[in-house]
Amino acid sequence: MIVGFHHAAISTPDFDRCVGFYKDVIGCEEAWSFEWPTGTPEADEMTGLTDSAARAVMLKLGDTFLEVFAFSSPAPKTRDAVRPVCDHGITHVCLLVTDLHGEYERLKSAGMRFHSAPLTQDTGYVVYGRDPDGNVVELIEFTDV
């Protein structure tokens, strides 16, 4: 029986910058970290890669987790830092907030880029922004509860 989502994961070209953003700016806490060297058969089997090596951290925010990977092998392909959300694959992570306008201003002041100013929807407010690697981070506030 599936009981819920545990975590989402992203791969980054700059581990310290990405983890710093999610810890220092977003407010995540490090739950645990791990790594594996090249030549770890279990890691290759699980990831479907050959000669993989990576460093990773599981970050906790509320009751949810975000896993951040930095692969040193094999060499990751670069991608467009402003990948459109219509492209196939995971499009964004969403953070539930209680003061969207205040968080928007705080994050914007910290250097986060946004697609627009906060928008009003039937149930509250919403806005899309980008983390330092260009991953889309949605902020959502429900005011109808």
What does this structure look like?
Helix content is 20%, strand content 38%. By secondary structure, it is α+β, with helices and mostly antiparallel strands. Strands 5, 6, 7, 8 and 9 form a five-stranded mixed β-sheet that branches. The relative contact order is 0.18. The mean pLDDT is 92.
- Compute the separation of the termini in Å: 29 Å
Average pLDDT reading:
92
- Please name the CATH topology of the largest domain: 2,3-Dihydroxybiphenyl 1,2-Dioxygenase, domain 1
Structural class determined from secondary elements: alpha+beta
Low-confidence stretches: none
Shape label: globular
What count of helical segments does DSSP give? 3
Rg calculated over all Cα atoms: 17 Å
Percentage of helical residues? 10-25%
Superfamily at the CATH H level of the largest domain? 2,3-Dihydroxybiphenyl 1,2-Dioxygenase, domain 1
State which percent range the strand residues make up: 35-45%
Total strands: 9
Largest sheet at a glance?
Answer: 5 strands, mixed
Encode the helix/strand succession as letters.
Answer: EHEHEEEHEEEE
Number of separate domains: 2
Top CATH class of the largest domain: Alpha Beta
CATH architecture of the largest domain: Roll
